[in-house]
Amino acid sequence: MYAIITTGGKQYKVAKGDVFDVEKLDAQPGDEVKLDVLMLNDGKKVLVDADALAKKKVTCKVVDQHKGEKQIVFKFQKRKRHSVKKGHRQNLTRLEVCSMPRITSTAKKAASTEAAAE
């Protein structure tokens, strides 16, 4: 069972117990955050209906706040004796997935009635 979630303008594929890094969130270690779900898959059924997924959230626990690896930015202009070396470290939040929503029978019925109406 996995879900596709969105945060910080990016999408992540997560399952229960996964630990992953996202762009910095305003939360302290130990806090719980609820993230929006774009798709649910339980191995047999896939749920992508936006109306049914609007109510579902993935609950994650904040493990820590840290900085990512250093990214080197090097600019060079030949024959002009010009070079600039800069670095950047992105602030990140490490999350652990605590609970995942389930695909309920009402969501299946709603999806089947919409398919029949079309």
From TrEMBL:
A Gene Ontology cellular-component term: cytoplasm
UniProt keyword annotations, A-Z: Ribonucleoprotein, Ribosomal protein, RNA-binding, rRNA-binding
Biological processes annotated in GO: translation
Pfam family for this entry, one: Ribosomal_L21p
Gene Ontology MF: a single term: rRNA binding
Domain of life where this protein originates: Bacteria
Family: Belongs to the bacterial ribosomal protein bL21 family.
Role summary: This protein binds to 23S rRNA in the presence of protein L20.
Summary of subunit composition and partner proteins: Part of the 50S ribosomal subunit. Contacts protein L20.
Protein name: Large ribosomal subunit protein bL21
Annotated organism of origin: Parolsenella catena
